[in-house]
Amino acid sequence: MNMNNKNAIAFSFGRAAKYYDDFAILQRKIGTRLFRKCSDSFEQKIILDAGCGTGFFSKKWKLIGKRVIALDISQEMLKVAKVGNSASCYMQADIESIPLKSNSVDLCFSNLVLQWCRNIHIPLSQMYRVTKYGGLVVFTTLADGSLKELRQCWEKVNNLSHFNSFLTYEEVEIACKIWLNKLEQISWYFLYPSFQSLLNSIKGIGASYLYKRKKKGLMTQKYLEKLVRNYPNVDNMFPLTYKIIFGTLYRE
Q: Could you tell me which residue ranges the Methyltransferase type domain spans (predicted)?
């Protein structure tokens, strides 16, 4: 992904930083599952929270006695993390080029960040590199099939592309194959009381960059009304599916 795209992503998340935690229900649910999978049995001390956002999970690691490096591409996100005293130190950097020495942390924790990278082998390689022998890289990422209801709805309204594509499970498997690893995929199904609340859940977490808007005024009232009419409805609720890959790389 070129730097212009990265700057756009950083800006999008930075703009959402102040109210991110109000909308990040999905991120907390998925991250909590990832955290529980490794925190109970993991005794080592130095944690890199790669793509820390507002520091929600940095703080969870810190509260159980870990030394936490909070890394994020967005300066505004790091400001919020600092206000919350979420970590031991803070680092504004791209997960694709982590400015840490090799073999310097015990565990890399990365929750719903890799889908923003064009080639996930690069950030995985970086996290693997900075992890000490015997340590772990644990991550989650969105997979193909996520947001399928919204995607299908847009296709009925017009034939433009509005979303970045997500990798399939098989593509993530290929990216990880050079390392000892464990992967699993699960589905998360949300129901929203209104179409606007569904959109807010995406935009509020800074993910509005998912929309590849080619012309101004695309999300007008006219389009919103068309989307609502064409969106699948479940007992007057608006469903949205997420496909999540949970991964562990074992540092050898």
A: 48-139
